[in-house]
Each structure stands twice: as structure tokens, then as C-alpha cells.
Amino acid sequence: MKAAQEVGVPKGWTEPDNEPDVGEEELTGWRIATKRLRDIATRQSLSMAQVSRLSDIPAPTLSLWYDGSYRPLGKQTLRLVKWLDAYEESQKVELQLRKAPTFLPTPTSQEIEKTLFIAQMLPDLVLITLGPGMGKTETARHYERTRPSAYLVTMRPTTSSTNAMLSEIAESLDIPERNTVRRDRAIGAKLKRNGRQTLLMVDEAQNLTDSAVDQLRHFLDQYECGIALLGNNELYTRFGKGEPREGYGQIHRRTGKRLVRMKPLDGDIETLINGWGVKDDDIRKLLRVIGRKHGALGQISKTMQLAGVLAALDSKPVDASHVKAAWENRGGEEHR
To answer: What's the whole-model pTM score?
Structure first.
């Protein structure tokens, strides 16, 4: 019997006291599997409860199997071995993977921040319309994290109406008011300038109806808070053009700065490539081409993530062949 916990072994993973009374082949498989499990659990500091959750094997079953008292033993051993193989492979991949940079001060993101700052300080209504994958959302999130009294809310097709939009804003601003009549006043009270510079950033604003946008204009007029509408080209078509469409005069007149950019700058692409830590000239050339496709900077990150997986499966560092394969597997054309 083991008298004490083995040094360096997480609780529950000491070597089993007894061996099961089964055939030699079944016993050998159990010995190998329990040792593998014990080694992995020790290396990764995994408790038995964590292994149970990760492997989807009930904790009582796992405990009985590890002690050698579960029957039929061989069937459960095969189940554990399948999980161990998958876990070790995923760990190998994760060790070589790099996370996509969440925020980088690209030239475009710096212009977005300046535009948001103008809206917050004056206060003013600003429009920011960028092509897909150019860092609009991540920059707005960064601005919210680093600036006081700046709030970000994201719209979607189901929040297009005025009431649905107000409900989404109230939830983002931690306003508990549920009465639809009083909710807009409660939001206004939270956004009211009142000695501080406040800013409401509305991402994916192209999803909003005209009346919902007009409600945001009311917040600007009544409570003197900055309003930033962020979205795609549809937003610019409705509210940003030099000559306003009929019925859009109030929004057009109140709009201060407009930032419109449908394609990334060279500096945006270079900043992201540097953010990924890419030194290889061949990879950099490929990524410059990919970054000018529809989806822009997002295409670079998605491709690099997949290239990392392919390289990890090959047990090699990422090279140009992995980037080419990743781009082609994602639906991009072949690079000749």
C-alpha cells in the first residue's frame, strides 16, 4: 500500500495500489494507459475532476478504472487511450500556435482613435465606415478599455428597431430599467455629459433603422454625449455622402468627422505582419498579397492561424508552403 502522496504528483494520481485481475493483454494496456495518464496529469497539473470533464468520462468511472476495479476494464482503457492520443496531439499543436494580435496601432486604427476622441471631446456625431477585416471593432474595443466614460455596443439585425436598440444599449451600460417609456431617459442619464466627456460607440450601425439612428441623434442633442456610428459601406451610403438623401438632413447636418476607408493602407498590412512576428521574406510577400484581398487584415490573421496548425501537424516551423496551403484551403486562389 502507498503510505503517502508521491512528491510532485497531483492528488488522486499516485500509482494504483493494486493491479486488476485480468488477462495479460488487457493488463498491459491498462498499465500503459494509467502511466500515460499519470504523466500527463502531473505535467499539466490536471486534477481527476478536470480529466473527467475534458475526456467526458464520469468521475466515478474514471476513478474506478484508474484503481483497476472497473469492469469491463478493456473497453474503458480504449476510451482513455483515444482521449490521451487526442489530448497529446492538441497540446502539440497549441504549443506551436500563436494567437492573433488583438489590437495593433496601425495607421488606420490610429485614425479611428482620433475620430472617436473628437466625438468624445466636442461632443459630436462621427461616422466610421471601413471595409471588412480592417480592425474597426478591435480598435473600438481598445478605445473602450483605455478611455473613461466610453461605451461600446454592437448591433445586429435583431436589434435594428429603436426599442431593441435601446434594450441592447441598456444592457451594455448595466441599466436595469425595463420600462420602455423610461428606458431612454435612464440611458440619457448615464450618458449625460455633466462635467465628464461621454461617448457611445455603436458598432455594426448599418443594421439600425432610420428611427433608431434618429434616437441616437436625440441623445447627442439632449444629453451632449458623443456618438460614433461604426459600420460598413451601407452606413456611409445612407448617412455619410456629401449630398444627403431625402429625409437624412438632420443626421447629415450633425455629423462632424467622417472616416471612410474601404481598403487597408500599406502601413496597416506591414504593422500586422510585424505583429505576427514574421521575418521570412517569402511569407511576408504572400501576406502582403493576401492582405489586399476582400477581408483585408482579417485574411492575414485567419491564414496565419491555419498555417500554424498545418505546421504543428508537420512538427515544423511555419514556412511559406504552410501559408500557401492555408490560403488555398481557405478558398484563396493558388499563388504561382
So the answer is: 0.78
